[in-house]
Write a structure and sequence with these properties.
The complex is a heterodimer of chains A (315) and B (297). Chain A is globular. Chain A starts with a helix and ends in an 8-residue tail after the last helix. The relative contact order of chain A is 0.14. Chain A has 13 helices and no strands. Chain A is an all-alpha fold and 315 residues long. With 297 residues, chain B is mostly helical. Chain B is 73% helix and 0% strand. Chain B has 13 helices and no strands. The chains are: A mainly alpha (315), B mainly alpha (297).
């Protein structure tokens, strides 16, 4: 067990190191850096001015030196300066994280609250009208782009309530903020809930076919007890994995949804930084996302072991 | 409790007991949702192939006089701010969507097959290195990976395809690798080796064809995510550039400001994306039921 943890931690660090190299190289493959964009916008290019800007930003240094500057700063908690605002990157990124985290947590709650029970109902009533309806609902959840769903929700709000629930000024209280965020959270969470519903259903069906369920039925356990006490407990294992993976992968849906709802979170900020070629922001944000994904995967594996004592990771 | 489904087993075994029409009829009765998906996909492909015939206008022709015309007998689904016909743009957009989804999936599958087969069949340090690289690529969600790739390659139709294809590779490589791992221990591989076949030939002629069923299922599922990813990238302004009419970009042009004044600009392109993805998902589910009986949903 201990050596498994050590190996696993080593692999996590290796993955993150690889990611840092990958993202660094990828960003510098692009022809044109921020100085090109700025000078393009200005309309004319004074080569001397451009060279000075590149020197100021350290873009004229060899790529290995640039990488070293970034990574050595990163491990010391120094993320460098944002090109666009010229403020420290950490000051740009940090305040945006809580907003995205709140949105992600709300979306996850939404997806679990709807996904798991509906998946169970769908499995227990397999091949009935309600099962078909739920399956089509979950398939449509996987098919609707979340930004379009967001736009449709906005449209309904405008039509029936006369206002648009988008983020303008920071809301006064936490409750107001959560209420405001619950709308985009539903738009993002719908997709995850569809995924969770599908997986819960197939996992439940798998378990319901097993011998011990027949035993439970034949000894006279009520259908409720069979479904929930006996079946769901075992069916929930793969569901936990997908919930964990979705928690990390929600960021994909958040990118577009934050853009639609004008939410000042990190996901939308990433897109803006990509468009502006703001390297310090992009590379740090991508690393941040990678850390979240890798750590969540690790937590999921550990949860697995706690939920199912039969699982032992080999040393 | 489980009963043997004789019809399905015969079909799976490739028995010709009914003829083509009979088989089609059987499939429709047995997989109604999958058949519906197939119909949607066929309509989508036909619209893409026959875009020039189906479209009533040139998708790029502007006309300031007709800016924001509501849906009617001339502009079936209305006109956008520049007076371009929404219906014709959606039909031509099907072309872009089809090109990107099929192109990216095919490219991603090709790369994924090579990587997965190598990794699973050769094993050892090759497997170790390849798996670590896949770990790295999987540490980013699909859209984030495609976003960074698209940004670093620059906006064009080709680059959008490449960006999405690269992001799809790890998934496909993983599936091919895991089937290869179990296949290479099978007696028929040993038999092939005993006849003196080269390792490359065994991998390509004997192992690869046996990974086809999960590959088809996975590839169909990736088609849907490729369509969605292209739409998202274009929505964010990092996908397929002008003058191509992309569904995703049609939505970003029209986003928040038109939801009051011109809802048709928001509704119809979104329906097109959703239907295309919905169709491939329905088809993918039915294919999985048909080809992979262990993973019935």
């Amino acid at each position: 067990m201990a050596s498994y943890l050590v190996r696993r931690t080593f692999l996590m660090v290796l993955t993150l190191f690889g990611m840092s190299v990958l993202i660094f190289v990828m960003l510098r493959l692009v022809p044109g850096n921020i100085s090109d964009i700025l000078f393009d916008a200005a309309g004319f290019v004074d080569p001397k001015e451009k060279a000075r800007l590149e020197r100021d930003l350290g873009l004229d240094l060899p790529i290995l030196t640039q990488y070293w500057h970034w990574i050595s700063g990163l491990v010391q908690g120094d993320l460098g300066f944002a090109y666009v605002t010229e403020k420290p990157a950490i000051e740009e990124i940090a305040p945006r994280i809580p907003v995205t985290v709140k949105l992600a947590v709300l979306a996850l709650i939404f997806s679990v609250v709807f996904g798991v029970p509906l998946g169970v109902i769908s499995a227990v009533r397999q091949n009935t009208a309600i099962d078909y309806a739920l399956r089509i609902l979950s398939l449509s959840g996987l098919s609707l782009p979340s930004f379009w769903l967001g736009l449709l929700i906005l449209m309904l709000f405008v039509r029936y309530f006369g206002f648009i629930p988008i983020y303008t000024d920071p809301p006064a209280t936490l409750w107001k903020e959560l209420a405001l965020l619950s709308v985009p959270a539903a738009a993002v969470g719908f997709r995850s809930s569809a995924l969770i519903m599908r997986l819960t259903r197939s996992s439940m069906l798998e378990v319901l076919r097993q011998d011990y369920i027949r035993t439970a039925r034949s000894k006279g356990a009520t259908p409720g007890s069979v479904n929930y006490d006996h079946a769901l407990r075992n069916a929930v294992l793969p569901v936990v994995t997908i919930i964990g993976i979705e928690a990390a992968f929600l960021i994909g849906g958040l990118i577009v949804t934050e853009t639609v709802f004008n939410v000042p979170g990190v996901a939308r900020f990433l897109v803006e930084a990509v468009i502006w070629r703001d390297y310090p922001i992009v590379q740090n944000l991508v690393m941040f996302i990678a850390v979240v994904v890798v750590v969540v995967n690790f937590i999921v594996d550990m949860t697995y072991m706690i939920l199912d004592p039969r699982i032992k990771y080999a040393d | 409790m489980s009963t043997i489904d004789h019809d399905a087993e015969l079909l799976r075994a490739g028995a010709h007991v009914r003829g083509a029409w009979g088989t089609a009829g059987f499939l429709i009765r047995r997989y109604p949702l999958g058949a519906a998906g197939a119909v949607i996909v066929i309509v989508f492909v036909l619209a893409a192939l026959l875009a020039n015939v189906v479209a009533t206008f040139d998708p790029t022709a502007t006309s300031s006089r007709n800016s924001l015309t509501p849906p009617g007998s001339v502009y079936w689904l209305g006109a956008d701010f520049m007076g371009r016909d929404v219906f014709s743009r959606i039909v031509h957009g099907a072309r872009i969507s089809l090109a990107v989804s099929v192109g990216a999936t095919a490219l991603g599958c090709a790369a994924g097959i090579i990587v997965g087969l190598m990794s699973g069949y050769l094993g050892g340090w090759v497997d170790l290195v390849v798996q670590r690289i896949m770990d790295i690529m999987q540490a980013l969600p699909l859209l984030v990976m495609a976003l960074v790739m698209a940004a670093s390659l620059g906006p064009s139709l080709q680059n959008t395809i490449i960006a999405i294809a690269i992001a799809l590779v790890p998934n496909i490589a993983r599936v091919i690798r895991s089937s290869t791992l179990s296949l290479r221990e099978q007696p028929f591989v040993e038999a092939a080796r005993a006849t003196g076949m080269s390792e490359l030939r065994i991998a390509v002629r004997h192992v690869l064809p046996n990974t086809l069923a999960p590959l088809i299922v996975l590839a169909t599922a990736q088609l849907g995510s490729a369509i969605l990813t292209e739409a998202s990238l274009s929505f964010l302004g990092l996908g397929v550039p002008e003058p191509h009419p992309s569904w995703g970009r049609m939505l970003s042009e029209s986003a928040a400001e038109y939801i009051r004044t011109a809802p048709w600009l928001v509704i119809f392109p979104g329906i097109a994306i959703s239907l295309a993805v919905f169709g491939t998902n329905l088809l993918g589910d039915a294919l999985r039921d048909m080809l992979d009986p262990r993973e019935r949903t």
